[in-house]
Every structure is written in structure tokens, then in C-alpha cells.
Write a structure and sequence with these properties.
Layout (H helix, E strand, L loop, with lengths): L2 H13 L8 H13 L23 H4 L1
């Protein structure tokens, strides 16, 4: 998926209109699953996954 589309989709789901936004109860398990993959990502990837609460500060490589 294109980098711009993934960034836009996550921004929309995390901070878009209230009727489309993910609730805290849905975001927490997704963030936990992302963080649980730290250390398991191959060395070819420059960055480890971060939680969805930090999506505004993600670099382009994290969106891949």
C-alpha cells in the first residue's frame, strides 16, 4: 500500500471524525500487539514498531 494512503488511513482511524475513530478499547490491543513485536523485526528494518498513540511522530519506514 502506498505510504501516503497508510498514513492517511491511520490518521483517520486514530483522530478522524468521532463516528469513524477507533475507541481506546480497540486501539489498546492493536498497540500492544505492535509493541510485542519489538525485537522480533529483522535487522533489515531500521525502526521497531511503536504504539498507535505515537502515530503523529512515526517516520515513513514505520508505516511500511
Amino acid at each position: 500500500m502506498c505510504l501516503g494512503m497508510m498514513k492517511r488511513l491511520l490518521s483517520f482511524l486514530c483522530g478522524g471524525p468521532k463516528e469513524c475513530r477507533l475507541s481506546h478499547h480497540l486501539k489498546a490491543p492493536i498497540s500492544d500487539k505492535l509493541i510485542s513485536h519489538n525485537g522480533l523485526i529483522p535487522s533489515e528494518f531500521a525502526r521497531q514498531p511503536k504504539s498507535l498513540s505515537e502515530v503523529e511522530r512515526w517516520k515513513a519506514i514505520v508505516f511500511r
